[in-house]
Amino acid sequence: MLQLGKKGHLKKDCWSLKNSDPQGNVASTSNDGAALCCEAATTTKSRKRFSDAWIIDSGATYHMTSRREWFHHYEPILGGSVYSCNDHALKVIGIGTIMLKMYDGTVRTIQEVRHVEGLKKNLLSLGRFDDLDCEIKVKKGIMKISRGALVLMKGEKVAANLYLLMGETLQEGEASVASSCSSERSAMIWHQKLGHMSEQGMKILVEKKLLSGLTKVSLPFCEHCVTSEQHRLKFNTSNSRSKAILELVHSDVWQAPVTSVGGANYFVSFIDDYSRRCWVYPIKRKADVFGIFKVFKARVELESRKKIKCLRTDNGGEYTGNEFDSFCKQEGIKRQFTTAYTPQQNGVAERMNRTLLERTRAMLSTAA
């Protein structure tokens, strides 16, 4: 059997090349119940790494650290001690709250952390997480601590079979900013999981403590809600009415689902805003609208001895051609065009189309 420090031992086993001595931390239970159990062989290089990291320990009775500057809420206490591997007692001098920023950016608040004077490692107790009904799973070098479907924190397996927390400790200034961001992020995650529930609905669930890890709700702007759930508000009812015949004429083209006996695929309607009288012309093509308008204009102006002053239509190509526009300018007819995809602005013509179709269906039903 080859021994260290003796001639003939293997290079990989030569401790002098590692430039360090083995170090261990073992604590036994004292009268006050504060205990930890951690054995670690660490090199000088990794010792600095462990001083700022948290070790997830199955033997620690409580969460413990010697870093006073990490505490956000702190209360000094008297009594209690932790014993190291040589039975040296380390005093417990305080208890408080520490905030940790996890691997995914969320911030967790760790309560009842013991401030142990002279402790070389920072320890998170698995037993304390078990008391909080958390589930601990270890697989392929990753330890997950969960409550329900929510993963609270993760640990990564490193040298000497230790599990280090995948996260970092937040100082007081950093925590105030990160906590606010984390709260918004958690609220947003729940908002998405609940099918983009409203902020008021989420507040009710928080009051009933049904949303784990969420104490208040302040939702940021959600682009998905706006694009997928928004609806157009109802247009105000217009009470305006022309004061004379042909002062304003409404027009629209409707496409028939079937071709008429005479071969028409559309009809164009003209409605006088003052009298609400309607003229309907079947047409075969939309291009026929301009010709029909000239026929309509000649007829109504002759009958009423008045001129058409304004024509309101949508932006359809049948109304916006150069020929149509030039004719209206020559005749002194003002044009009004509705905004695209806003049929409400041409409501008189749209409602007349509906009325004409309903009466046609009623007549066909009676004839059958």
Descriptive report:
With 368 residues, this protein is of the alpha+beta class. The chain has three domains: 13-170, no CATH class; 171-212; 249-367, Nucleotidyltransferase, domain 5 (2-Layer Sandwich), CATH 3.30.420. Helices cover 28% and strands 27% of the residues. The protein has helices at 44-52, 126-131, 172-193, 199-207, 223-229, 289-304, 317-320, 322-331, 347-367, and strands at residues 25-26, 37-38, 54-57, 64-65, 71-76, 81-83, 89-102, 107-116, 122-125, 135-139, 142-147, 150-157, 163-165, 167-169, 249-255, 266-272, 278-283, 310-313, 334-337. Strands 4, 5, 6, 7, 8 and 14 form a six-stranded mixed β-sheet that branches. A five-stranded mixed β-sheet has the order 17-16-15-18-19, with helices on both faces. Strands 10-11-12-13 form a four-stranded antiparallel β-sheet. It is rod-shaped, with a radius of gyration of 40 Å. The N and C termini lie far apart (109 Å).
